[in-house]
Design goal:
This protein has 185 residues and is α+β, with helices and mostly antiparallel strands. Helix content is 40%, strand content 27%. It has a four-stranded antiparallel beta sheet with strand order 3-4-2-5. Strands 6-1-7 form a three-stranded antiparallel beta sheet.
């Protein structure tokens, strides 16, 4: 986050509709087996660079994190689960080649348990997520979807959970119809 400007005050993510989130990471099980875990460790930045060069693939943003000296992971925000699946299975992308290597090693009995891999994918429906940022640059969900002043979505968490992107448009339409009907009367 160095170099990013701080947004003063409280903001929230401008996400609308469902949000697709991928948590993906690795665990170093044996530090001394560097030749096993280092290629895995270096693969993720390569995939992120590959995705960064082609925004149409669907990655909106990501955050690199560590849980311990052994465990590293990335929180990724995607346009949709379909774009996530398309990237994961695309034979011309590095992810596909990396998993082909892992699968070949596993079939040959050459996986020794030196490094663990994991991922969890979620599609979070609108109304099942909310966010708040205080004096922060755009981060996480807000970096992926943009950020808006807190008052646009509600000062309380329950208000932000209740926000629906389609309601504002529907309320505006209903108000316009009501005005038109009263003018005709």
């Amino acid at each position: 986050m160095p170099g990013q400007s701080v947004t003063a005050g409280r903001t929230t993510a401008a996400a609308e509709g469902d949000v697709t989130v991928l948590l993906i990471g690795m665990r170093i099980n044996h530090f001394w087996a560097v030749h096993h875990w280092l290629p895995v460790f270096l693969a993720m930045p390569r995939m992120l660079r590959e995705l960064g060069k082609n925004p149409d693939r669907g990655l909106l943003g990501h955050v690199l994190l560590t849980a311990s000296p052994r465990t590293y992971y990335v929180v990724q925000y995607w346009e949709s689960k379909e774009k996530l699946y398309r990237y994961a299975h695309s034979p011309d992308m590095f992810h596909h080649r990396a998993w082909a290597i892992i699968n070949r090693k596993e079939r040959a009995g050459k996986v020794r348990g030196h490094v663990g891999l994991w991922h969890e994918a979620y599609v979070v429906p609108e109304g099942a997520y909310e966010a708040i940022y205080a004096d922060m640059p755009a981060f996480g969900l807000a970096a992926a979807h943009g950020q808006v002043p807190l008052d646009k979505r509600g000062r309380r968490a329950r208000d932000r959970f209740a926000y629906r992107s389609g309601e504002k448009a529907a309320r505006g339409e209903a108000a316009s119809k009501g005005e038109a009907a009263s003018k005709e009367a």
